[in-house]
Amino acid sequence: MLKKRGFFYELNKNKVMFLMLLPTVIFFLINSYFPMVGIYYAFTSYDFAGGLFGSPFVGLDNFKFLYQSGALWKLTINTIGYNVVFIILGNVLAIAIAILISEIRGKLFKKFSQSIMFLPYFMSFVLLSVLAYNMFNFESGFFNQVLKSLGIAPVDIYNTPWVWPILITVFYIWKNLGYSMIIYLAAIMGISDEYYEAAKIDGANIMQRIWHITVPMLKPTFVILLLFALGSIMKGQFDLFYQLVGNNGLLFDVTDIIDTYVYRSLKVNFDIGMATAAGLYQSLFGFVLIMSVNYIIKKINEDYALF
Amino acid sequence: MVKRRIISVCMIMTLAASMLAGCGGSKEKDAGNTTTDSTQTKDNGTAANTSDSKDNKPGGIDTSEKVELQFYMLGDAPKDLPIIQEEINKLATADLNATVKFNFTTWTDWEQKYKLLLSSGQPIDLIFTADWTQYQSYAKKGAFLPLDDLLPKAAPKLNEFVPKDMWEGVKVDKKIYTVPATWKEYVNEGIAYREDLRKKYNLPKPESIETLEQYLDGIRKNEPNMLPLADNQGYQTDAILQLTTKIINSSGNIPYGQIMMYDTPRDITSYWGSPKHLEDLKMYKRWADKGYWPKNVLNVKDSAHDVFASGKAAAVLGGENPNRFNDSVIKIKSTHPDWELGYFPYPNAKGFASPVHPIHNGFAIPRSSKHPERALAFYEKLVTDKKYNWLTQYGIEGKNFEVEDGKYYKMIGDSQSSGFPREGMQSWAWRNPEFMLFDKSFDSVLAMFKEFDKVARPEIFQGFPEDWTPYQAEKAAVLQVEKQYLYPLNVGLVSDVEGGLKLFMEKAKQAGLDKIQAEYKKQWLKYMDDIGK
Hints:
B: D-Maltodextrin-Binding Protein, domain 2; 2 domains
């Protein structure tokens, strides 16, 4: 009772503030919360006449296709594994490069290297797959041509599963490094010069300045990006995997992620129920993960937590 | 300083947010596997009930209210579509007090778009159906309106025009849901090969496995830079069954690795795991070792048809039906006049040919239609009225085409410059044999059809309305196993074929293959009873 009066009191006091908040709230209600009703599709066998609530309820049947062939475990491991590598390697490299770039004094060179690193971000994965094929195919690929001209026997890359986790990671980093680097670069630009000047006067060298000022100051940015990334850890980079691996079943054991699996399953016979079930599984997993990681971070340092 | 910090923090947040937004955006379009799909289907139920129209005079429909019909076709729209649409609308306004909007999905992701069109509840009055758009499955799930009662009332002429057995053929659960095309067409496939090279190196005509292999070997030996076979992703497997057995269907495969022969349709057995399957896979291994296709063929994305038509390969086994082969001939005549193409249709090996089943091309009225009667009346015009028909099939006479020698179609300009090429609207479904015009070059196809007519036996496979609801999960799981374990075998990438096949069968059984095959067999035998075989 007391709390409720408190809320109305608050509402009355900050009328204008709440009014300004309203559009955002409506936006999220319409785009994120109302559609959640659709989760119910995951438990129905859809038919056109019945619609959402008229379709027969089938319980957990729609989730069956995920574990029927015993693939769910492998898929979950693959999806999370790739994402963990992407997150850690991607962020560490991005921070390192951002620091390097920020320390470069030559303006022209700075801009140049920044742009060069940013460009791959705009390349589509379809082009990337063509590029990869022309680089690695057995008969006429660039890689094997070089091997041949050196007198080494060519390697059938597309038939060698163990190289693919490395290749995919390399391609991912190559494509996304420029973008995440810019985020960190922006954070570095925001660090006050006064710290550096003070450190300089105290005799800190450049490594010490980076290690004791820049890196700690980047921690909040890193934590925010980490939390965002963890929320979608079950959602793989569909384009990347689908384009690079395609229908090559020989590589599925090490490259199949939930997204590609679901795509292949439902491409032929699309079923709203099954598609929703897969999406729900991914989202639920991400939700639980982000809640727990946020909780842990909150325990360690409340300032860094997202909420 | 403080200001600068605020700005930079804002910038970080925006960049981070846009990064996430970017991911989200691409996810939605890529697989159709996110929950967002379901949100668009929400208001379906409400739109469904508006279809029953009120008081109608017997033998006619109420056209007092002016309506706009939404017409949906797959593929790309021709350049001159707005002009055609305007012409059609002039006619339709006078005849039916209606206008029509022709919408096209483009071929990119048409499967996803088609599903969304039908499930989103957006009002659509006419939409294309075919066996390959899963007509029967959609009809079973209630996506289309039954036409039985509407037809005599709204389109009596059309009702008469389409033969009785065709109406019977398209029925799903004893109801008509689509208007079938009436032109008798053959879409069986065949081997397309380079006749000029065959003659040059004195190779046999590829008309059986043995001669095909001799031909491909000869090409490999004499043209080392040319690929013997254009087929990629292992799609040659269906073609080989067409060539070596009297399999019941005329193209594509029978799902879940099953097989039945035309003469004994009730005798359905598993092709997967059979001795013949092992033998075929060993042959593919041999072919792969001989270099008939590139080693990384599973990652090749060019279509086999294009690879062959561009001259990079010497033969293609799958996908070349008479019509399509004729296209290749015309195309190559203009780019490489010195080449000569040969064709061996599989019916010649099988001893019989089957024209397409009535469900192969059709138009249905989705449940979301606001004006089903007017839509059907309009479709009747499209099929039975020569003016409508020619406009939408060939464009405007004198501008897009002209009639040559009183019976041939002649395009004005070429396929690049013409704003409305022949059947530019993918107008397969409303072809009317009485009005049809063919290009002169099509004579060879028609001659082929005439040959097929001599050995024609009715298509009995395509009409089978498979209902996979009882084994939906297993179907998806088996599909995965097939991709992962069978595809590499199909293109000869596994050195131990016997072991590979064993592993595949093991995994497939684990995924529920036996259950699927048993249920499929049950349904198939019931269908056999229904059609009296």
